[in-house]
Amino acid sequence: MAPPLLLTGFYASILAVLYIALTFKVIGLRKKHLIGIGDGENAELAKAIRVHGNFSEYVPITLILFAAFELNGGSAQMIHLLGGLLVTARFLHAIGLGKSIGTSWQRFVGMIATFLTMLILAVCNILAMF
C-alpha cells in the first residue's frame, strides 16, 4: 500500500510548479512596468494577475478533494486520471486566458475540465459516506 497522500502530493507538486511559473510571470511584469501593487491599469499585468488568481481560487479546494478521495481509499487509477485532467485543465486555462481576456477554446476547455474534476471528486467523496 502506498503512503497516505502520495498521489495527491504528486499532483500538488506538479501544480505548485505551474503556480510558481504563473507567479514569476506576474513578478516579471510588475518589474517590467514598475507596478508594485494592483495592475496600474496595465492590461498585460491585469491578465497575468487574473490567470494567477484564477489558479489560486480553484486548485486548493480541488487538492483538498483529491486528499479526501485518496484518504477514503479512492483508486490510484482514478486519481491519476483526474490528476492528469486537472493539470491539463489548468495549463490550458492559463494559456487561453494568457492569450486574450475574451473567450478561447483553451480557456473554455480548461474551466470545464476543472469543474468536471471537482464535481467527480465531490460526488465520489459524498458517496464514500454510504
TrEMBL record:
Pfam family, one: MAPEG
InterPro entries, per the entry: MAPEG-like_dom_sf (IPR023352), Membr-assoc_MAPEG (IPR001129)
Gene3D superfamilies, per the entry: Membrane associated eicosanoid/glutathione metabolism-like domain
Keywords for the protein's UniProt record, in alphabetical order: Membrane, Transmembrane, Transmembrane helix
Compartments reported by the entry: Membrane
The keyword Membrane is annotated on this UniProt entry: yes
Membrane-traversing stretches: 6-27, 108-128
PANTHER family noted in UniProt: GLUTATHIONE S-TRANSFERASE-RELATED (PTHR35814:SF1), PTHR35814
Protein name: MAPEG family protein
Annotated source species: Thalassotalea psychrophila
